[in-house]
Design goal:
It is a single chain. With 627 residues, the protein is an alpha/beta fold. The protein folds into three domains: 121 residues, Immunoglobulin-like, CATH 2.60.40.1180; 291 residues, TIM Barrel; 138 residues, Jelly Rolls. 18% of the residues lie in helices and 32% in strands. Helix 9 runs parallel beside helix 10. It starts with a helix and ends with a strand.
Length: 627
């Protein structure tokens, strides 16, 4: 009996010791930072995909405001014949308001009156958003065979036929001219089920082009207010533009030709996006730069490097020189004074002040190109460095001919891969180029990521934060998706929307949290006994005396972690804990339920530099404390 009692006591004691040994512990050395956090770590990557610009961020409400090249029919335009009126419409391939826009919408009205008007209507990007007491600004180019013709423009409800707003443009002439109008709504119901109608009240033939309508926009620069506000909440430090595949095009002739995207709309010919629809090019080079200006971001300018997606390419040497010169011209448009050719052109376009430019990216995903990127990069590198030695040049594939300043690496992962690869850069060489993670995402959820993807994304980002002496920039992709059927080409995407409203995915909210809780220096953080799927990063801001901890608990049970802060004698009595969590990893947000998964803040009391905190199952956490 005595021996049995001893055995029982030993087993019990061993169990206590074992349990204590398994207590998760996070030890942080606040006083010995290992490196500076890159000030440009978190930013945005953008391109025309999923109706990101047209039908998305770019505020234009009219879809196909010009008939595009190769369009044999007017997809989003239909004839309107009220009462006994008669009308036919067609795409006129022989007349347009400019050499850039040589085709137009021909509306032939053979019978019409004030009681029975006739004309044409546009269905918008899955509807026109109408809100009460709102001013919409519009314009169109037109000519007619009946000079003096009035045109009535109206917003009409699809279901009721009620007119939300109307205006009349008088004295349409026989030559091409731009006409402007304003639509003002009254006490109407908020709705996206509307269409735009242009009618005449007597027989005539009238040609329309560049039919446009904008709601109020962010800083009056043409971008949708709710989407810009969501981007601002991410505290982005840079914008990589214009793509992406959108930069390259399917063919060389379909690349993003920046010189065709500046100046008046009537001089922008539009072009085919590699994602299967026509781009209006209303979001042109200057609009990208103003987007950066509005959100206080650095531009990361991607220039076409001689390779397109269907494997068309330009060989290094004399054939590439025009493309190199085009890139030099583009940089001058961005940065040049008004005493330079392209700086003066920018001033003519309405922006005399130059933009600061630190990074230029040569091409996009050129690891797909086996036809000579190394040689092409070297040719761009030499020319740009000679003219702009201060600009940092980004390669999109490893090159041997010259050493790039930065290498762009892309990661599209399953959740399992993101979790397992969270330490990707921990032991990466520091002797090569800096790293730009220009596109990354956990590909789970549709059209936007679910909570499981957000947890995996957060785990991945803790690794980028820990290594932000090497990883100077990172941006999720794709950024946007119009959630209507037929609008999406790729999933998941960070922010979803329709014509009327928008929402952030769990991954969006996670990135808002990460960017808002980021210091200026990396501090050592050692996690022990936490088991799988718990991830951490720690940064501090010595000027603010702030310590920011990120703790990701991707497990189905809560994680109670003992946190031991070294190198500080005291901490604030209270800290702010922001948590993003859900009951299941499949939980998500949607256009119908936009706030199912959103961050929740609470104040927690700390007992000193050594304290214990419990982190919820399936949660991303940011702990903000003073020291």
């Amino acid at each position: 009996m005595k021996n049995t009692s001893v055995l029982v006591s030993l087993v019990a004691a061993f169990g206590v010791v074992a349990a204590a040994a398994q207590t998760p512990t996070l030890t942080i050395d606040v006083s010995h930072p290992t490196a500076a956090v890159s000030p440009t770590l978190y930013g945005l990557m953008t391109e025309e995909i999923n109706h990101s610009y047209d039908g998305g961020l770019y505020g234009e409400l009219v879809q196909d405001r010009v008939p595009g090249t190769g369009f044999g029919r007017l997809v989003h335009w239909n004839m309107v014949a009220r009462g006994k009126s008669q009308v036919s419409i067609s795409a006129d391939q022989t007349t347009g308001p400019s050499s850039a826009l040589p085709r137009s919408i021909k509306v032939s009205v053979t019978s019409a009156s004030a009681d029975s008007p006739a004309g044409v209507e546009n269905d918008g990007y899955w509807g026109f958003p109408v809100r009460p007491h709102t001013v919409y600004t519009g314009s169109f180019w037109a000519k007619t065979d009946a000079p003096g013709l009035p045109v009535t423009v109206s917003l009409i409800n699809d279901q009721t036929g009620a007119t939300a707003a109307t205006a009349t443009v008088t004295n349409i002439g026989s030559g091409w001219k731009e006409y402007k109008y304003t639509l003002k709504t009254g006490a109407v119901a908020t709705s996206m089920n509307n269409h735009l109608v242009l009618t005449v009240a007597r027989p005539a033939t009238v040609w329309f082009d560049l039919v446009s309508l904008f709601p109020p926009t962010y800083d009056n620069h043409g971008n949708r207010i709710d989407l810009m506000q969501k981007l601002a909440a991410m505290h982005p430090s840079f914008l990589r533009f214009p793509g992406g595949n959108y930069l390259e095009g399917d063919t060389i002739n379909q690349r993003f030709e920046w010189k065709k995207t500046i100046g008046p709309w009537v001089d922008r010919p539009t072009h085919r996006s590699p994602w299967g629809y026509q781009s209006s090019d209303g979001m042109g080079l200057l609009e990208f730069l103003e987007w950066c200006q509005d959100l206080h971001m650095q531009p990361v300018l991607a220039v076409y490097a001689g390779y397109s997606l269907h494997h068309e390419h330009v060989n290094p040497g004399p054939a590439l020189e025009p493309y190199v010169q085009d890139a030099l011209d583009e940089i001058q448009y961005v940065t040049g004074g008004t005493d330079t050719k392209w700086g003066a052109e920018r001033a003519k376009d309405g922006h005399p002040a130059p933009f600061a430019l630190k990074y230029v990216e040569i091409g996009n995903e050129d690891w797909f190109d086996r036809s000579g990127y190394d040689g092409r990069f070297a040719q761009f590198y030499k020319a740009i460095k000679q003219a702009y030695p201060q600009i940092q040049l980004i390669a999109t594939a490893p090159v041997k001919s010259v050493r790039p300043d930065v290498l762009d690496e892309h990661f599209y992962m399953t959740a399992e891969k993101a979790f397992s690869d969270a330490h990707h850069y921990d032991n990466h060489s520091r002797t090569g180029p800096k790293i730009f993670v220009g596109e990354w995402a956990t590909r789970e959820g549709s059209p936007t990521p679910d909570l499981q993807a957000a947890l995996a994304d957060a785990a991945w980002l803790t690794g980028l934060e820990r290594n932000s002496d090497l990883v100077v920039m990172a941006s999720y992709a794709p950024l946007f998706v119009n959630v209507n059927p037929g609008a999406m080409q790729w999933a998941p995407d960070l922010i979803g929307y329709n014509a009327l409203t928008s929402y952030g995915s769990p991954s969006y909210w996670m990135q808002v949290m990460f960017a808002a809780n980021l210091g200026t220096q990396i501090v050592p953080a050692h996690l022990q006994n936490a088991g799988p799927r718990v991830y951490v990063s720690a940064t501090r801001d010595p000027q603010k005396r702030k310590l920011y901890l990120k703790i990701v608990n991707a497990n189905s049970t809560a994680a109670q972690v003992a946190i031991d802060l070294h190198g500080t004698g005291k901490v604030g009595a209270q800290a702010v804990l922001t948590t993003l969590s859900g009951k299941t990893p499949n939980a998500t947000n949607s256009i119908e339920n936009p706030r199912e998964i959103v961050p929740v803040k609470q104040t927690v009391t700390l007992s000193g530099p050594n304290f214990t905190e419990t982190f919820a199952p399936y949660s991303v956490n940011a702990l903000d404390l003073t020291y």
